Structure formats: structure tokens, C-alpha cells
Amino acid sequence: MTTADGRRAADGDPKPDGDPASDRAAPADTAPVDTVPADTAPADTAPVDTVAAVVRQWEMVRPDLDTGPMEVIGRVNRCAALLQQAEDAPLRRAGLTRPEFDVLGTLRRTGHELTPSEIARETFSSGAAVTKRLKQLTERGLVERRGDTRDRRVAHVRLTDEGRDLVDGVLPDQLAYETRVLSGIDRERQHELARLLGELLGQLEGRLRLPRA
């Protein structure tokens, strides 16, 4: 640090012996270097992520559009995609996709058999998607199906012992993983984020007339 008259101020550190530069006056045209104290830096900065870059590009080519919704919906979609693709997630290591685990988890948390149509409603999936997942899970021995005694067109699905053990084993690890994912956000802000997402989800479910818990 330099003083107003250009001389180096003592900072308490010993000067090396025989160093004439340590007492030499700084050139007159050398301007002092100004630093901003840490506590005066702006508290809030614009988020730096891929969605922010996309929004900036749209603002340049279409400045007449309000890109605000993109900042929310885009980030929700991006977070969901990254969590689905995470190689270190316990679900991925167990050889399960999130939709497949949702099927298993639905059967585990309800505690009874469900029809494919009921599973589709519980997991917000199409009938065709559920049929495909049930086929894969059945082949792995995680679920089993039985026909309805009164209506041969209806099937009932339940977890096998292996499927129950897999859900019970993976769920604690998955929750611990998701806790680590959220660890950069303090608890209070996590609760606020959950509340805001809950409001958005409630509005979407109401608009689409989906059943709520």
C-alpha cells in the first residue's frame, strides 16, 4: 500500500537487509492501487448459468419480449434434466431411471396393489409409458402382475420382495445425495424455494385439473 505522498507504508513485515528499494520513493506518476473492501461489494449478483446466457441472447435478438418466464421455467427444466443425468446418483448406480423408481416408490408408499391406470395417475405419466416401465421392472423381478378375477382386461401390480428391498435400500442413499445437491443453499432458502415451487405446482395442477394429494 502507498501513502498519499507516494512512499511505501510500513506494514509490520521486516525489510530484507540491503534492499535500497524498500526505502526508495515511488515514481511520481505511479498511481495508488485502489481496492474495494470485501464488505462493500454488491451483495446480490446476477446468476451465472446456462439459462442466464440463453436469456441474454434472446434479449439481444428480441428485446421486445419479456424473457422473465424463461428465467424460471428454463431453470426448472434445466435442473430436472441435470438431476436425471447425474452419473453419481444412487438411482443411476442401482440401474434405475427416475420414472422407474417413481413406479416402485408409488407401490411402496401406498402399501397395496395398484392397476397400471392408477400408477399412471400417481406418477403423472401416460399409460403407454407406464406399460413400458412395468415390462422392464417385471423382467428384472422387481414387480409382478396378476389378473383380475372379475375382469380379465384389468391387471394388478405389486412389489416383489426384491423390489421392496431395492426401494428401502436405495431411498436413504438417494435422499442423502439430494441433501448434498442442495447443500449450497441454506435451510431457510430451501424452505422458501420449496414453498414457491409448491405454489407453481399447485397452479399447474389446478389448470390441468390434476388430482391433488
How is the secondary structure organized here?
Layout: H1 50-61, H2 68-85, H3 90-93, H4 98-110, H5 116-123, H6 127-139, E1 143-147, E2 155-159, H7 161-181, H8 187-207
Antiparallel strand pairs: 1-2
Helix pairs in contact: 5-6
Short key terms for the protein model shown above:
mainly alpha; 8 helices; two-stranded antiparallel ribbon; 213 residues; single chain; 52% helix
Short description:
The protein has 213 residues and is mostly helical. It is built from eight helices and two strands; from the N terminus they run ααααααββαα.
Secondary-structure class: mainly alpha
What is the C-alpha radius of gyration, as a whole number of Å? 30 Å
Report strand order across the widest sheet: 1-2
- Indicate the overall shape: globular
Low-confidence parts, pLDDT < 50 over ≥5 residues? 6-12, 20-43
Give a quick account of the main beta sheet: strands, pairing sense, barrel closure.
Answer: 2 strands, antiparallel
The span between the termini is: 64 Å
> β content, as a range?
under 5%
Q: Helical segment tally?
A: 8
H and E string: HHHHHHEEHH
Helix content: 40-55%
> How many strand segments?
2
What would the average pLDDT be, to the nearest integer?
82
